[in-house]
Design goal:
Shape of chain A: globular
Number of domains of chain A: 2
Oligomer: heterodimer
CATH topology of the largest domain in chain A: FAD/NAD(P)-binding domain
Helix content of chain A: 25-40%
Order of helices and strands of chain B: HHHHH
CATH class of the largest domain in chain B: Mainly Alpha
Radius of gyration of chain B: 22 Å
Distance between the termini of chain A: 42 Å
CATH topology of the largest domain in chain B: Cytochrome Bc1 Complex, Chain D, domain 2
Structural class of chain A: alpha/beta
CATH superfamily of the largest domain in chain A: FAD/NAD(P)-binding domain
């Protein structure tokens, strides 16, 4: 080609003009600004796929912590099967490979009219879209006496990191023959199999080092996810060690006495040597502050885009979202983050939108060589998200199937964290 | 193509240059795109194959490693389609993959097959 024709140049100039006009950007900035608030599984995944999807977006991730410890697999740390460091991930690759700007600060307020957020450090960031992934908060006053100070004595360990380490230290210090009390929360809560996997893997630890210890689960519910599979596992691996008391038996968990390490139900008081209190949950604090949560405590969203039904321009993903029948899990958050990212890319860059696919998959360990799996596909419509297809391991699976699932679980952890942070 | 031209040299004055303004603009545009890709280490990828493949990446490593969970990068289109059909029908066991396969249309499976086969060729070239 020796020379551009006037028509060719016209096309080029036109394309450049369209490029300059689109997308609609915050305060006339060159690129559309997307702020992702919260660097957990949902937030980090959204930031990566937004940056990966288009060069026309400037993606900023706001997260106070320098590194993130995954809640999933933290029960393996409690069992002594993994280090906490192996569950901890940084944001370097998101910054260096994908060009996400990572700001280590806390958001104090979101102004949906001015379209900006205020940071604790004093800065104000304007946005075209926000993705909020605030995770869970705990319902204050749900259990009398269980406050911030009590959490340092009776850890919840339901956000991973120092709380998980504290629980592990207490378990290590407990004498053989001691009683570990686990208070399990009412629905809905983060990771439905989590409390029962925790009981299983703490039993795995006790069986080796404190074989006379007992585990008592005081549940706010009358049944739990995959109950028959768990109870079968407990009978096979830890006969007589784990006792589960449903709310119809106890009348509900009412209060804790931190000094006496007591957990009080409607009818009885239980003395614990180590107590793990997992309280009732709701969307994380910022979701409430920004008026994104409804009376249920969770954030209603459009199932096809995860845009808030209460505040346009703000998308809520992960545990905080009220996503129909989707479980609150890391896998579900990752799946939602991708659907949300593609919807935002379509809205801001005009890229094509395809039918969303939402999944949840879970590997749950009953012992070091026994994992159960579950897989759920969902279908989303403008109203809600429904279960499309469901699989769960069964009692009587071959031992080799369960062993293979442990190998798959470890491979999955590596691949999944690479998908989020790598 | 502008790169084919031999008329530009260090000593060539503006009067001698065979480069048109349009060619220079085109070259700058291409160069800026190359720089943008080089800085980021990847090209923006948001087509249907990439959007569907994002689902797979939650379990299958896209860097070709396959510890614990088999790699799907580099499977031929035929291999991919045959495997997915076998999972879908239940002929091949694997409950998680069965759930995934059953949620995908045949057209989506074909798009994914093409995406991962192409991705495999890219990985081999590196």
């Amino acid at each position: 080609m020796t020379c551009w024709t006037r028509r060719q140049f016209g096309c080029l100039a036109g394309a450049m003009c369209i490029g300059a006009l689109r997308p609609k950007t915050a305060r006339g900035q060159a690129k559309a600004q997307v702020l992702v608030i919260g660097g957990g599984v949902g937030g980090a995944t959204a930031a990566k796929y937004l940056a990966l999807g288009s060069e026309a977006l400037a993606v900023t991730l706001v997260e106070p912590k320098a590194r993130y410890t995954t809640c999933f697999f933290s029960n393996l740390y409690l069992a002594g099967l993994r280090s906490l460091e192996s569950l901890t991930h940084g944001y370097e690759t998101l910054e260096q490979r994908y060009g996400v700007k990572v700001v280590h600060d806390s958001v104090t307020a979101i102004d949906p009219v001015a379209k900006n957020v205020s940071l604790e450090g004093g800065a104000t960031l304007s946005y075209d879209r926000v993705v909020l992934a605030p995770g869970i908060g705990f319902k204050v006053g749900a259990i009398e006496g269980y406050d911030d100070a009590a959490m340092r004595i009776m850890p919840h360990a339901w956000t991973a990191g120092p709380q998980t380490r504290l629980l592990r230290e207490q378990l290590e210090s407990m004498e053989d023959g001691g009683v570990f009390v686990l208070v399990a929360p009412p629905d809905p809560f983060r990771c439905p199999p989590g409390p029962y996997e925790r009981a299983s893997l703490i039993a795995y630890y006790f069986k080796q080092y404190k074989p006379r210890a007992k585990i008592l689960i005081l549940d706010a519910k009358d049944s739990f996810f995959a109950q028959d599979v768990f109870e079968d596992g407990w009978n096979r691996h830890y006969p007589g060690m784990i006792e589960w008391l449903p709310v119809q038996f106890t009348g509900g968990i009412k209060a804790v006495d931190v000094k006496g390490r007591l957990v009080k139900t409607a009818g009885d008081t239980f003395k614990a040597d180590v107590a793990n209190v997992i309280p009732a949950q709701e969307a994380g604090w910022l979701a409430h502050q920004a008026h994104l949560a409804d009376q249920s405590g969770w954030c209603p969203i459009d199932p096809l885009t995860f845009e808030s039904k209460l505040q346009p321009g703000i998308h809520v993903i992960g545990d905080a979202a009220k996503a129909g029948n989707m479980a609150k899990s890391a896998f579900a958050s990752n799946s939602q983050a991708k659907v949300c990212a593609f919807a935002i890319l379509a809205a801001l860059t005009g890229s094509e939108r395809f039918a969303p696919h939402l999944f949840n998959t879970c590997f749950t360990l009953l012992a070091s060589d026994d994992a159960v799996t579950s897989a759920i596909s969902y279908s989303a419509d403008p109203e809600t998200i429904k279960v499309n297809d469901f699989f769960l391991s069964k009692i009587g699976d071959k031992a080799e199937t369960r062993r293979e699932a442990v190998r798959e679980a470890n491979g999955w952890y590596a691949a999944f964290t690479l998908d989020i942070f790598g | 193509m502008p790169g084919d031209s031999t008329a530009v040299s260090a000593t060539a004055g503006p009067r001698q240059s065979a480069w048109s303004l349009h060619q220079i603009i085109a070259l700058l545009l291409v160069a800026s795109l190359v720089v943008a890709v080089a800085e980021r280490g990847f090209a923006a990828d948001n087509d249907q194959g990439a959007q569907l493949a994002a689902t797979c990446a939650a379990c299958h490593r896209v860097d070709g490693h396959d510890k614990g969970i088999p790699s799907i990068v580099g499977l031929s289109e035929e291999q991919f389609v045959t495997l997915m059909r076998a999972f879908k029908s239940g002929e091949r066991s694997g409950p998680i993959m069965r759930t995934v396969a059953r949620s995908l249309s045949n057209e989506e499976i074909a798009i994914l097959a093409h995406h991962f086969a192409a991705r495999g060729k890219e990985t081999q070239r590196r």
